[in-house]
Design goal:
Blueprint (H helix, E strand, L loop, with lengths): L1 H17 L11 H25 L13 H15 L3 H11 L11 H18 L3 H28 L3 E8 H18 L4 E8 L2 E8 L4 H5 L1 H5 L6 E6 L6
Antiparallel strand pairs: 1-3, 1-4, 2-3
Helix pairs in contact: 2-3, 2-5, 3-4, 3-5, 5-6
Length: 240
Amino acid sequence: MPEETSTMKNAEWLEKLADLGGRKMQEIGFLPFLVATGMALLCALFISFLYVRFYQNRSTGSMVHRAFPLLGVSIAAIFIAIQFSLPLSLGLLGALSIVRFRTPIKEPEEIGFIMLVVATSLCCATFNLQFLGIILAVAVAGLLLQGLLRRVWRFQRPQGLLVVTAPRGAYDAQAAAFLAAVRGKLPQARLEGVSRVGEDVHVSWGVGDPGEDLAARLPELEQLLPGATAQLFCHRATEV
């Protein structure tokens, strides 16, 4: 008899866990609630890892991924608690309406990751494990595909700025040869402008993939003109 009772309890718990947001969600117990919030926490930590891996080195420094674990757990808990009573749900919505962000969202991808945390937390709150797996799989596949295409996009859109400053006399005497030499050494660079300030001439190129290789070649570019200096600026942090 004790074994049959234990089997029946396990079957009831599994039935609640497998319920996809139906009426039995109102009968949720402590253990299913703990499982739901635990899954939301694990998903939020995984999304934080994805953010650090794919976007943190190019962000403006808001470190938004630090809030993902608490966001995931709180969102899952709120949507589970909402299903118990209408007054409680109205109170929670009223509390959420006064929340304000002191630091604005600075990067567009941060909104995407926050929405991913919300979506996975809702799936955990309703025990919709199939949707949870599909969402995470599609998100990871999209990030990996974007990483594969990133190098192509870099060549199409300049990610850095190369500036060579030289005396006006030296540049005027060898301008054509200098520009041809730079084009031969950096075929992907695009000339963006030439400015004359005082006795100096500043020539700038847009480069698709700035990195350590190009930074190491700056002395080589400086030797193309007497008295020239070369500087490399990255629009976003380059990957090492």
